[in-house]
Design brief:
This protein has 349 residues and is an alpha/beta fold. Helix content is 37%, strand content 18%. It has helices at 8-17, 40-50, 65-73, 78-90, 100-115, 119-125, 147-163, 204-211, 290-295, 306-309, 312-325, 327-339; strands spanning 2-6, 24-29, 58-63, 129-138, 172-178, 185-187, 194-198, 221-222, 231-233, 245-247, 252-256, 283-288, 345-347. The strands form two sheets. Strands 1, 2, 3, 4, 5, 7, 8, 9, 11, 12 and 13 form an eleven-stranded mixed beta sheet that branches. Strands 6-10 form a two-stranded antiparallel sheet. A hairpin with an 8-residue loop joins strand 8 (221-222) and strand 9 (231-233).
Length: 349
Amino acid sequence: MLDIYAGKSALALIETDGFKQQIFGSFLGASGGPKWFSLFGLDKHLFGHFFAERTEPLNLIGSSAGAFRAACFAQKDPVAAISRLAKYYSQTSYEDDVTPLDISNSARVLLDRVFDDNGAQEVIDNPIFRAHFLVAKSNGLVASERKPLQIAGLVKSYALNRVNRKLLTKQYERFVFQNALSTLKIEDESGFLTYQVALTKDNIKESLLASGSIPMVMLGIKNIPGAPTGMYRDGGIIDYHFDIALKNAPGLTLYPHFNAKPKAGWFDKSLKRKVNAKNYDKTVMLVPSNAFIDSLPFGKIPDREDFTKMTTESRIAYWQQVLEQTENLASSFSEFVDKQDLSKIKLIA
C-alpha cells in the first residue's frame, strides 16, 4: 500500500541507524488541496504514534494544504486537530455562483475550527514541533484583485517559468512565517528572496490563510502583521512540492507525498522539469502506491476538480471513503517500522 523512497545519504544513514523517529529533523507538507486526503491515516499515525514521544525539535514546513497540516501537528493534540481539518474540509460545499470572497470566508471558518479554542497559541508556543508556513508575496500584476490584471500576471508567470524558473523572482518573494525558536534557513538556487517572520497571535491566522490562498480562486491576504506591506498568496506558487535546501536542520527530512515525482512550483505542474536531486539527498518520501490508488473509488486520489465534476453528495461520500481507506497506509508504515525491512526502500530517482 505504501512506497518508500530515500535519497542516497538518507538511505546510508538508515542502513546504519535503522528507521526510527530520531533520525529525522524536518517534515515537509506539500500543496495540493484535497490530494492531501490520501495521506490522512498516515498523518494520524505519524503524529499520534511515530513522533509522539519526540523530545528534540522537528521542523514542520508546509505550503498551502501542507501548512494547514503543520498547524495541526504543532497543536497539543495533533490527531484531534488533523481529524478536524479532514472532517470540515471534506464536508465543505459551495453554491454554483461561488465567488473568491465566499471561498476565502469559508477558509476562515475552517481555520477557526481547526484551531478550536487554544490551537493557535499552542502552535506559537510549541518548542518541539516548530511550524513554518510558506507564503508567496506577490508583486506587480499578480498582486491585483482585478481579475483581468491578475490573469495577465499569471499568464506572464507561466510564460517566464517555461523559459527559466529564475525569471519569476521579480514577481514573487518567499516569506516563511515560523516558530520564533526556529533557526531553519531555506536556500533556493532559483534565487527567490526568502524572509523569516516570527509567528505571533497577530499574524498566525493571516499567514496560514495566505499560504492557502490560491490565485483566482481566493482573495489574497494584504499586509500581514510583522511582514512588509503587500499582497500575500498561496505558498505553492513558489513551493508547490519543494525544490529547496534546508539549512540549520540536522537529521533527515520526512516527506509524505501523494506522488513520487515532486514539482518545484505551481507553474511546473505541466512541465517535465525535475527537481534538483541534491535537494532530496537527505529526504525520505512516503508515497501511496499505485495499488493503493487503484483501490480507491474511481481509481484516483481526490483533487479540486471534484468540486465541479461531482455532486456535493457524491463528492463527500467519495472523500469520506478515501479518508477511511488511508488507515491502510498507516498499517503499512507501522509494519515497515516494526520489521525494519529496508529492502523495501527505493532510491529517489
